[in-house]
Amino acid sequence: MSATSDNQTGGIYDVIVLGAGPVGQNVADHARAAGLSVAVVERELVGGECSYWACVPSKALLRPVIAVADARRVDGARQAVTGRLDTGRVFARRNRYVTDWDDTGQAEWVKSIGADLFRGHGRIAGPRRVTVTGDDGAHHSLTARHAVAIATGSGPALPDIPGIEEARPWTNRHGTDSSSVPARLVVVGGGGVGVEMATLWQGLGSQVTLLVRRRLLPRMESFAGELIERSLTEAGAEVRTGVQVTGLRRPDPAGPVTLTLDDGGELEADEVLFATGRAPATGDIGLDTVGLTPGSWLDVDTTCLVDGVDGDWLYALGDVNHRALLTHQGKYQARTAGDAIAARAAGRPVDDAPWGDHATTADQHAVPQVFFTDPEAAAVGLSAEQATGAGHRVQVVDVEFDAAQGAKLYADGYRGHARMVVDLDREVLLGVTFVGPGVSELLHSATVAVAGEVPLKRLRHAIACFPTVSEIWLFLLAAYRRD
């Protein structure tokens, strides 16, 4: 990565994008497709957190762990699994998928769509103005005719605990770019990052202890966390719920770290990984120059325009608007906002009605998410608790996966659970959750059903192939009809 800009001139553009991760790339692509000139600003690697420290490396590392677990669930294949994972090859596989942290290919893609790439720290300098400071101190002044899109993402939020600086804890970045396996690893946090990191490093050979304040995956149906906790425990990890870390000690930088817990006990590990939330990467991007608070999440309307900024020019996409800290959801917002920017630039009407061309309606109704644990947990829409809390009159339908012949063939003793939450007044789905091996590939069908508000009377005519895991739909719908 060069230290300064790939474009040395600065100047006036229709659209300026802060952040060249998947979200920034998508809004740039849609703006360019509409014929708008675009400048993209990136202070780290083009491709962002997702490409180098989050989605891509974590899934590249998790796949060998899950593949071995799947093989062990099939008689005949189980007997062929005779050794441990080759961690060197697992890390090498990860390195291939992150292109050895070389962003040349993604930088070339940005330029291939006709956008100008500026490398350096971008800061808003007032309405429609951005300054870029390169690593060498060079400055570039950019002006946007129509829009500035903030797509700077988020970073790990570490708790304010005595000794945390001395302990030098891992975050998601250390958890995905490290190439050595700690003998003992404590993971703090039971959300998506926490359970995936516990699954990953236990599979690679660490003795993992997972510390959780409440329960695993607290925003999903409770059975998701229960099944994952059971599986982690069976794999040899220790899961401790209802505990908090109150202090850390690591007097020898090369030695172990000691954790003090709120129950008065202590725990020693070779490394500790905190997965305790995210903070918006908006602390030093000039928000104060347009009346916003540095370091804050940014509230937006349905087209992703930032609230409280006059002139319809400032957009916030992806993690920074705090709607759904998921790459695919940020890319959806970016595509939608990119089209809205183009419409406003051309003076065309903006279709921001629910489910309109320029409305991010799915942010409120049909957000899909998958955690690549063992078993996988996948959900879209509202949980039963969320639906009831929102005032819907619902029916909850639960089915065990072993009802489906396809699941039994997929894995001997297949263990999993499916739930759909039905809006009784309209007879459409408000939410669906699957937990089990391989269920991530079932989720899009549920997303189509929820986003499309497909009537259950019609959905029963969508026939699942025999014998596949997707036969679970037949049993869910049959259970609803019986009830």
Strand content: 15-25%
How far the N terminus sits from the C terminus, by CA atoms, comes to: 60 Å
Mean pLDDT: 95
Number of strands: 21
Helix share, percent: 25-40%
Sheet of most strands = 7 strands, mixed
Structure description:
NAD(+) binds at residues 189-196, 277. GO terms for molecular function: dihydrolipoyl dehydrogenase (NADH) activity; flavin adenine dinucleotide binding. With 483 residues, this protein is of the alpha/beta class. It has 3 domains: 11-47 and 103-155 and 280-362, FAD/NAD(P)-binding domain, CATH 3.50.50.60; 164-277, FAD/NAD(P)-binding domain, CATH 3.50.50; 375-482, 2-Layer Sandwich (Enolase-like, domain 1). Helices cover 31% and strands 23% of the residues. The chain is built from 16 helices and 21 strands. The chain has helices at residues 22-33, 48-52, 55-71, 87-97, 104-112, 164-167, 172-177, 192-204, 222-234, 327-346, 362-365, 384-389, 405-410, 443-451, 456-459, 472-482; strands spanning 11-18, 38-42, 116-119, 121-124, 129-133, 139-150, 154-156, 184-188, 207-212, 238-241, 245-249, 257-261, 266-269, 271-274, 278-280, 314-316, 368-371, 376-381, 394-400, 417-423, 428-436. Strands 1, 2, 3, 4, 5, 6 and 16 form a 7-stranded mixed sheet that branches. The protein has a 5-stranded antiparallel sheet with strand order 17-18-21-20-19, sandwiched between helices. Strands 10-9-8-14 form a 4-stranded parallel sheet. Helix 1 runs parallel beside helix 10 (327-346), helix 3 crosses helix 4 and helix 3 crosses helix 8. The longest helix is centred in the last third of the chain and has 20 residues, at 327-346. Residues 1-8 have low confidence and may be disordered.
